[in-house]
Amino acid sequence: MSSAVLECKDVFKQYELRSGPLEVLKGVSFDLKEKELLAIVGISGSGKTTLLNLLFGIDTMTEGHIEIDGNNVSNMSKDDFRLFRRDKVGMIFQEFYLIPSMTAIENVMAPLIIAGKSEQLALTKAYRLLERVEMRPMANKYPHQLSNGQKQRVAIARAIANSPKILICDEPTRALDTTLGDGIMDLLEELIENENIAVIMTTHDPEVAARADRVLIIRNGKLVEEKIVDKESFDFRAAKAIYREPEIAENEPAAKPKAKKNATTKKSKKSSKKSKTS
C-alpha cells in the first residue's frame, strides 16, 4: 500500500431540526490507501452510515475537505460529482437495492449503459463480472428469486462495473449468516488484490473487522481510536467496549447518587393510612 486514494480532513455534518441543530460528524479525518481494506466500527447512531453517504455523494457535508484520487470533491456540484463518482467510486448498500423488475444481468448492465457503453459491450462485461462473483448461472434470475448472499454478489458486480478506484460497503455482511458473510469477505479481498480496488466498510461484527488492514473506531461522530490490525493479537471483541463506552464531557460534574428512601418513613405512612381507614 502506498499513496492515499481518499482523504477526509475535518469533516463535519450537521442537520437542522425543529428541536435544534443535530451534529452527527464532528471533525472526522482519515485516509484510505491503495489496495487497502479499511473498517469503521461503532454502534448504531455513531455516524458510520452518514460518513459513507458523504463519501458517495448521497449527502453533503456541512464543513470539511474530501479528496478522491487526487481530486477535491468538496466543492463539486451534485451533477459534476455524479459524473466523477460513476468512474471512481462504487457502493454496496445494506439492503442491496437491486432493481426488482430487472434480472441480475440487467442490474449489472445498468451502470455500464448509463456510462455510455453500447448494449453489446455492457452485456459482455456484465456476464464477465457475474462470472467473477460466481453468479453467471443466475444471470436471468430476478432479485426475488435470489438468496441474500446471491443478491450481495450481484450488488458487488454492479458496484465494480465501471472499474472504480474505491468501493464503499455499508455493512456488507449484515444480512448474511457467517458462512455467506465469509464468502463475501473472501470476494472483497480478491477484488482488492486482483482489481486494485481500495475498500472502506462499516461493520458491527468484530470477526469481519478482524479481516481489515486498519480499523477506525467511531463514537458520537468522532474517530476516537485507530488500530493498525495485528491479526494475531488484536482483540476486536474487547475493542467493542471502547466504542460502547458513554462519552463524558470534560469538567462535567458527576451525577449525584439518588437518596434512598427511609424504611421507617414508609412504615409510618402505612400505619397512618391504616388508622384513617379504621
Task: Please explain how this structure is put together.
This protein is of the alpha/beta class and 278 residues long. The protein is 37% helix and 25% strand. The chain has nine helices and ten strands. The strands form two sheets. A six-stranded mixed sheet has the order 6-7-8-3-9-10, sandwiched between helices. Strands 2-1-4-5 form a four-stranded antiparallel sheet, covered by helices on one side. α6 links the parallel β7 and β8. About 4% of the residues have low confidence.
- Mean pLDDT reading: 84
Can you write the helix and strand succession as a string?
Answer: EEEHEEHEHHHEHEHEEHH
Percentage beta strand: 15-25%
Number of strands: 10
Distance between the termini: 86 Å
Q: How many DSSP H or I helices?
A: 9
Structural class: alpha/beta
Characterize the biggest β-sheet.
6 strands, mixed
Low-confidence stretches: 247-258
Biggest sheet: strands side by side, in what order? 6-7-8-3-9-10
Keywords, separated by commas or semicolons:
278 residues; four-stranded antiparallel β-sheet; 9 helices
Give the topology.
Blueprint: E1 4-17, E2 20-33, E3 37-41, H1 48-56, E4 63-68, E5 71-72, H2 78-88, E6 89-92, H3 104-114, H4 119-132, H5 148-159, E7 166-170, H6 178-195, E8 198-203, H7 206-209, E9 214-219, E10 222-228, H8 236-244, H9 263-277
In short:
By secondary structure, the protein is α/β, with parallel strands linked by helices. It has helices at residues 48-56, 78-88, 104-114, 119-132, 148-159, 178-195, 206-209, 236-244, 263-277; strands spanning 4-17, 20-33, 37-41, 63-68, 71-72, 89-92, 166-170, 198-203, 214-219, 222-228. It has nine helices and ten strands.
